[in-house]
Amino acid sequence: MRAVVYSETGPSSVLEVVERDLPEPGPGEVRVRLVRSGVNPTDWKFRAGMMAGHDEVVPGQDGAGVVDAVGPDVTSYAVGDRVWLVLAQHGRPYGTAAEFTVQPVGRVAPLPAVASYDLGASLGVPAVTAHRALTAGEDGPARLEPGALAGKVVLVAGGAGAVGNAAIQLARWAGATVITTVSSDEKADLARAAGAQHVVNYREGDATSEIRAIAPDGVDIAVEVAPAQNIGIDLDVVKVHGLVSIYANNGGDELTMPLRAAFGKNLRFQFLILYTLHEHLVRAAVDDVNAAVAAGALRVGADAGVPLHHYPLEQTAAAQDAVEGGAIGKVLIDVTTP
Question: Is residue 286 part of a domain?
């Protein structure tokens, strides 16, 4: 099989396409023929030096394809099942930038009939992260479903990003009113396409005042991508007993804030990353994401605010470079023909 690998960390030039033996599934595992592989920022960050410990790595946490073989004792999947993958390369050397991957059944999810492989390969990291960001509150729902966030106001920072887009779509499906902040008219259009009812361009005015004008009582949840830059806004606009979910460090690695402001509102700060998230939370997110997909509430494509950028497997380095360069939308690798 063809696979993209690297044996040393560094720039995208360390990636190469090689031929490898077809892996066989063991007990509790399935082999998936990948149709699409999704590229996330963690892929290039791991490759650039954040990850070590394997002699050879096939990158890629997300992907979608068809079950091609099942290991002993596997009864939940059969050959021919359409599936999507979550955390495929976490703690393992071989991810989704290959024609085949062997995965434990816990990292495999059925792909609803209404979903394309493009959507399936776009779900894992962005949608599961967004789900956790929306469900980590003290008095909020642990699971998402229609009506779970009814009456709530959600602020999504960076609504044109992959996680931000997923958060908008999931929050709207669950019944929330969504406000999002963006940095350009182009990104504002994408956020509206995703379903945001209110869009604030933080480069054109006072974001705090505009958010307060929309939600005078404050917002219940802030999904935060740039806490170092936005903490002042969050402290001003999140209501008492509200939630600030922080999933990235855009704009700075150090967070400083006035503690009394946070104390006074009994705020909950939820820092989150998927790689140490408890398995039961990942599975709950996968189940809810699949329900949203089946309902047509979670989509990709320009009309959903997620322009798609396709690269062949041989151009995985260029695909990672595009993500590192801030490509707007979702970067996908076309691995095999559906």
Answer: no
